[in-house]
Amino acid sequence: MARRLLLTTAAACLVAARPGVGFGFPEPSVGDVATASSSRRRFMQQTSAAVVAASWAGGTLPASADEAAVATEVPMKLFVDNAKPSLFAIEVPQRFFSIRRSAKGDLPDAKTGQGRRGGTIFSAGDMSKAEVIAVERFPVRNLLEEEGYQASGDLSTFSSLGEPVPLATLLLRRREKDKPGTQNIAVLNKDSVSLSPDGKTLSFTMKQEINVQKPELLLEQEGVSELFRTTVAKATLASGDGNILAVYASALDQDYAGPDGVALRKAVDSFLATDQSAAN
Fold first, then answer.
1. Which residues of 141-169 are buried (b: 16+ CB within 10 A; e: fewer)?
2. 101: nearest Cα among 20, 178, 22
3. Residue 26: pLDDT above 60?
4. Which of 63, 79, 239, 249 has the fewest CB atoms inside 10 Å of its own CB, making it the most exposed?
5. Cα radius of gyration rounded to whole Å, the chain
6. Would you say 76 and 94 are in contact if contact means Cβ atoms under 8 Å apart?
7. Strands (E), 63-179
8. Which pLDDT belongs to residue 230?
């Protein structure tokens, strides 16, 4: 029963991270999921044992929270889009797999922003923790028309399109469209919505509850009886070509609360869209 719970929970987390997409990574096998969970438990046990051993042996531990944070900081690597034209640059954790979509069928349609993998053009992640970073690209005109709004006038800034919270809601709804019916809908944190001074960048966070079939077993294994996924997002119109580039980075709350969450926020903050206006 415990084994089935881990499999169900891991599968739900991966689907919730980007519904219907699959990230281009191989699907985890029963052995992969069990091994990942076992490795994480062993790591925590070994870390605790090392701390105790150091204290008994007169070893040194971090003297402050700042030193502890530096000791657990997640190493990052820079990814510069290698497509022609290059569309963006972003820092991602070094351990993450990174995939830039290039096959014609995988890339979103230039007019609709939809493809086999939605609007996703780049994915990075750690499947053992169900942590994912995704970059999407789609026309701002399409975002508005799908919701029944007339796409006319100035479309170059979010401030010219409308108020920040309704716009963040539109972006969330677009991302949720392909989610299977059994998955809970992510909820926008309205207090997190912010607009850059130039009106071109919209930032926000959202949270989604993950369905857990056996909460009592999850409590026994992981110390929690419910699971939530937090997503930090940023959408930008800085490319100047009529397209929105949006980055989404997500993790389970117990991972997001630690160094991994710091790394994911750093990744989103680092995301830069390349100005394409000169090429049009």
1. bbbbebeeeeeeeebbbbbebeebeebbb
2. 22
3. no
4. 63
5. 20
6. yes
7. 76-80, 88-93, 97-100, 120-126, 131-139
8. 97
Q: Which amino acid is at 260?
A: D
Q: Distance between CA atoms of 8 and 218, rounded to whole angstroms?
A: 11
Task: Categorise residue 32: left if φ over 0, alpha if ψ from -120 to 50, beta otherwise.
Answer: alpha
Residue 23 has a CB neighbour count (10 Å cut-off) of 19
State how far the Cα of 98 lies from the Cα of 92, in Å rounded to an integer: 9
CA distance 184 to 176: 10
What's the confidence (pLDDT) of residue 184? 83
The residue behind tokens 């919505």 is 193
Question: Residue 248 has which token pair?
Answer: 């989404």
Residue with tokens 């630690």: 258
Whole-model pTM: value is 0.74
Q: 215-222 and 2-17 are packed helices; what angle lies between their axes, rounded to 10 degrees?
A: 90
123 Cβ contact list (under 8 Å, min separation 6)? 18, 21, 23, 24, 25, 98, 99, 101, 132, 133, 134, 135
